[in-house]
């Protein structure tokens, strides 16, 4: 009897929450049900948006409406980094999406971000995940400018399929190399709005982002040393003889000096390949959720990465029935992979700082949140915090919320500082490079406060 009442209530709730109407274009891409998924009340969509019909270039998206009252909730675009890693496999199915694969089924994520917003996951740039070009030559020489332009065209054309979201409050968030993707996209959106007011951009949030190459990468040495991963001697060498940004620059140019090779070999030996650099406290084998960061650690490229053999996200997304349910197809590749092996990205773009663009976005009146999982040694919180403080000084923003703890539940969720009520920095305690994966509850609290424009909780 109790079960029957519960089921009846579920269907009643679902009936009252499905209030949005969709165009024929979007209805064709509605997901009836993903294989193995639990019963849910929200609608899901997936498919392709052309960004260049002439060259047959199309980006793949996965869209989940908010659990409750989606018509009143904002639209959030999520981008993963790499460059070249999937927002579907990492963001949606490993971090903050409504489901996570478990064997042959999907299990619900109680900390899914669609509890607070309508979430749009985009596999970008071309050549990532299910996104494709009919001509493989289009995968060569892809760079930040091309990615930003394609993402802009994607959103323009996506609004044609989902016109009810055209004037909706829009937020963009993501992590890692999305520290380049997001500011550049936001800036050209604001420029586009001067011609046609299409994007109702309300804020951006960047998680463990690459913002300024030297500061971000060179903060790794102190993080390693302060957490006991390297010796005093190696720390001195890693900050004087060859710092990490110099090594990466030499690596990308194919000309590693003997001194840098010697220092990096020392660092690699001492930190050990058995410690996960994306969460220095993590004591398990690496999952696909960490793959987006491998490009940021080129000394590990030659190693065989243990992905725990049973990488459930990869297995799930390579199932024929799953691809059919997602309206997805493989073009020019045999398997869906977490990070593209066909994309030839201009990696030297990483040396072009995106922090000045963040400053221009703030000057345009758009709130910015930069947050860091505090167990990440790849893009450590110390570098991000330094960059945020420096930017605040350059913009003349005074501290509006002094550095303090914030709470999630009955525990400290992290630390935060706010400048001028428009630029915020926050750490997520105990979180990795992919914060919503390792600290889903605390990440959801941060996300909710960001959307609502409210301070992070000061008490529990």
Automatic annotation (TrEMBL):
Enzyme Commission no: 3.4.16.-
Entries under InterPro entries matching the protein: AB_hydrolase_fold, Peptidase_S10, Ser_caboxypep_his_AS, Ser_caboxypep_ser_AS
Keyword Secreted: yes
GO MF assignments: serine-type carboxypeptidase activity
This protein's record includes keyword Glycoprotein: yes
Signal peptide (from-to): 1-21
PROSITE patterns: CARBOXYPEPT_SER_HIS, CARBOXYPEPT_SER_SER
An example Gene Ontology biological process: proteolysis
Keywords: Carboxypeptidase, Disulfide bond, Glycoprotein, Hydrolase, Protease, Secreted, Signal
SUPFAM superfamilies the UniProt entry points to: alpha/beta-Hydrolases
Enzyme class: hydrolase
Pfam families tied to this protein: Peptidase_S10
GO cellular component, one term: extracellular region
Chief location of this protein within or outside the cell: secreted
Localization of this protein: Secreted
Family (UniProt): Belongs to the peptidase S10 family.
Cited function: Probable carboxypeptidase.
The protein's name in its UniProt record: Carboxypeptidase
């Amino acid at each position: 009897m109790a079960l029957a009442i519960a089921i009846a209530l579920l269907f009643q709730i679902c009936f009252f929450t499905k209030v949005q109407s969709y165009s024929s274009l979007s209805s064709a891409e509605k997901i009836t049900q993903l294989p193995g998924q639990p019963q849910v009340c929200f609608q899901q969509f997936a498919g392709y948006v052309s960004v260049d019909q002439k060259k047959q270039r199309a980006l793949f998206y996965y869209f989940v409406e908010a659990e409750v009252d989606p018509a009143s909730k904002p639209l959030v675009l999520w981008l993963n980094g790499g460059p070249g890693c999937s927002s579907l496999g990492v963001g949606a199915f490993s971090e903050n999406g409504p489901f996570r694969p478990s064997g042959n089924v999907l299990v619900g994520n109680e900390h899914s971000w669609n509890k607070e917003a309508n979430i749009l996951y985009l596999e970008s740039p071309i050549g990532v995940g299910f996104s494709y070009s009919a001509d493989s030559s289009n995968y060569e020489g892809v760079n930040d400018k091309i990615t930003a332009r394609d993402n802009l065209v994607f959103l323009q054309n996506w609004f044609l399929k989902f016109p009810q979201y055209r004037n909706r409050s829009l937020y963009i968030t993501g992590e890692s190399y999305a520290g380049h993707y997001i500011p550049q996209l936001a800036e050209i959106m604001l420029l586009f709005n001067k011609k046609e007011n299409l994007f109702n951009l309300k804020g951006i949030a960047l998680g463990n982002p690459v913002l300024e190459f030297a500061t971000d990468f060179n903060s790794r040495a102190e993080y390693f040393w302060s957490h006991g991963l390297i010796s005093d001697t190696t720390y001195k060498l890693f900050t004087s003889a060859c710092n990490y940004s110099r090594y990466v620059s030499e690596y990308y140019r194919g000309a590693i000096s003997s001194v840098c090779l010697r220092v990096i070999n020392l660092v690699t030996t001492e930190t050990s390949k058995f410690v996960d650099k994306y969460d220095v406290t993590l004591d398990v084998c690496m999952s696909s959720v960490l793959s987006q960061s491998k490009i940021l650690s080129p000394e590990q490229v030659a190693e065989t990465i243990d992905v725990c053999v049973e990488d459930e996200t990869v297995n799930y997304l390579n199932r024929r029935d799953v691809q059919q349910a997602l309206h997805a197809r493989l073009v020019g590749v045999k398997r869906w992979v977490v990070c593209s092996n066909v994309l030839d990205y201009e990696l030297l773009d990483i040396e072009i700082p995106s922090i000045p663009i963040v400053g221009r976005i703030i000057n345009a009146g758009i709130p910015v949140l930069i947050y860091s999982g505090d167990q990440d040694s790849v893009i450590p919180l110390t570098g991000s915090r330094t960059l945020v403080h420096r930017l605040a000084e350059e913009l003349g923003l005074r501290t509006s919320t002094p550095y303090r703890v914030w709470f999630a539940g009955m525990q400290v969720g992290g630390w935060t500082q706010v400048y001028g009520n428009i630029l915020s920095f926050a750490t997520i305690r105990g979180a990795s490079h992919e914060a919503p994966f390792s600290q889903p509850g605390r990440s959801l609290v941060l996300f909710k406060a960001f959307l609502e424009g409210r301070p992070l909780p000061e008490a529990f």
